[in-house]
Specification:
By secondary structure, the chain is α/β, with parallel strands linked by helices. It folds into two domains: about 120 residues, Urease, subunit C, domain 1 (Roll); about 290 residues, TIM Barrel (Alpha-Beta Barrel), CATH 3.20.20.140. The strands form three sheets. Strands 1, 2, 3, 4, 5, 15, 16 and 17 form an eight-stranded mixed beta sheet that branches. It has a five-stranded parallel beta sheet with strand order 6-7-8-9-10. A four-stranded parallel beta sheet has the order 11-12-13-14. β2 and β3 form a beta hairpin. α6 crosses α7 and α8 packs parallel to α9. The C terminus is likely disordered.
Length: about 425
């Protein structure tokens, strides 16, 4: 990693600032979802991890501070590059020990997600690996994932626990996230997902496990500041709406923000969760007309995870166009996990969103950057290239922003800046 005292990226072919014409601070909706704020022959001045100025190259070369400090500035020419805000991957599950290859093989033979789970696969198949792994081993795996995400242009990552599913292993998972975050130059938001599924030892009495989550896990996490959010998987075969409400209510009582996995396989009315003020509802493969209207008036973001639908071989995807047309704020994230979405690539997610959910390339970019920041309530710092915000930038070898979603299954990200740090690896070299 290299960090200069001041850096001027100049002669950028297309600089996607994502500045909003309306100036609204919430998630972009409707036509706003296509506003990229493109600056041709753009430039960005960065100092001390923050964006200082944004404009055309000509404007910034005339900037008073640039003139007075020209000898202290390292200039980087970005001809034939597209520069955009670093991706905000607002839904990932990076704490696992081994891939779920048996699940993958069974799925290719025709087994469904639920059939695999009932046979002992699915989330439960990852439990033993996490419980047996050391905190150091988990930290190494999580940090590797963070660096791989950064090499594809991601600068802010939401990271969940959820594969330990007992008190000690969930705490160990969150500690591994914290340790990896401390070694990572980007931004990490930790989430307790102790309520991912009911572990085998509590299958006959799931309410006892809910009690453990509420009375043991959440208080400890809040006290030790191990997470910013609490999440729950409200789904058939996981947690009931009533159990989910108890978990979310407990989280709020302990001062933690909440989010929820909902409406992936079966539909539940979102009205019952409104009182908890969730930052995001995630998956949302199905949604009623009533909930569309409710979300359109809400600050809660619908985070869509099309890589999971792709990997599961499903013919249906979240109804993104219906949501956009209704005025819902949507975000895109990888859902990186060992069972249903083993990908760290936000550009791939954008491509799937365009091809299978019919988002435009511009809509996909906004959903994967600014609206992702809104899903983490970090839009004051992340998600657009504006003076005063964190210096999180993704630099792509491209002449047109549409290439980011067009070229799939390859990495066109030439460099990533995370809080002012340049990532310099074999996969993401300095331009």
């Amino acid at each position: 990693m290299v960090r200069a005292s001041a850096i001027l990226l100049r002669n950028i072919r297309q600089l996607l600032t994502l500045r909003s014409a309306s100036g609204r601070s919430g998630a972009r909706r409707g036509r706003e979802l296509s506003e990229l704020g493109i600056v041709e022959d753009g430039a960005v001045l960065v100092q001390a991890g923050k964006i200082v100025a944004v404009g055309t190259t000509r404007e910034l070369l005339r900037h008073a501070w640039v003139k007075e400090n020209s000898k202290r500035i390292q200039e980087i020419v970005c001809r034939d590059k597209v520069v955009l805000p670093g991706f905000v991957d607002s839904h990932t599950h990076p704490v696992f020990a081994v891939p779920r290859l048996i699940d993958f093989e069974k799925r290719t033979a025709g087994a469904s997600y639920e059939e695999i789970a009932e046979a002992g696969g699915g989330i439960r198949a990852s439990i033993r690996g996490v419980r047996e792994a050391s905190r150091k081993a988990l930290t190494t795996a999580v940090l590797r994932a963070f660096n791989e995400m950064a090499a594809q242009g991601t600068t802010t990552i939401e990271a969940k626990s959820g594969y330990g599913l007992d008190f000690a292993s969930e705490m160990k998972s969150l500690e591994a996230i914290r340790d990896a975050a401390n070694a990572f130059p980007g931004t990490v938001v930790a989430t307790l997902l102790g309520a991912h599924t009911v572990p085998p030892e509590h299958k006959a009495g799931p309410d006892e496990y809910v009690r453990i989550v509420c009375e043991e896990m959440i208080p400890k996490v809040a006290r030790k500041k191990l997470a910013d959010y609490v999440d729950v998987f409200c789904e058939r075969g996981a947690f009931t709406p009533e159990q989910s409400e108890r978990i979310l209510r407990t989280a709020r009582e302990h001062g933690l923000a909440v989010r929820a996995h909902v409406n992936q396989l079966t539909e539940v009315a979102l009205e019952r969760f409104e009182e908890f003020g969730p930052a995001s509802y995630d998956h949302m493969d199905m949604v009623s007309a009533a909930d569309l209207a409710r979300l359109a008036k809400s600050a809660t973001v619908a985070t869509l995870l099309p890589a999971a639908n792709y990997f599961l071989g499903l013919s249906h995807f979240p109804p993104a166009r219906k949501m956009i047309d209704a005025g819902v704020g949507i975000a895109l994230a990888t859902d990186y996990n060992p069972g249903t979405a083993p990908t760290v690539s936000m550009p791939f997610v954008l491509s799937v969103a365009c091809t299978h959910m019919k988002l435009s390339p511009a809509e996909a970019i906004v959903a994967g950057t600014f609206n992702g920041a809104c899903a983490l309530r970090m839009q004051d710092l992340k998600g657009s290239i504006e003076a005063g915000k964190d210096a999180d930038l993704a630099i792509f070898d491209a002449e047109d922003f549409r290439e980011i979603a067009y070229w799939f299954a390859m990495n066109r990200c030439s460099a990533t800046m995370l809080n002012g740090h340049f990532l310099t690896t074999d996969k993401a070299k300095r331009p």
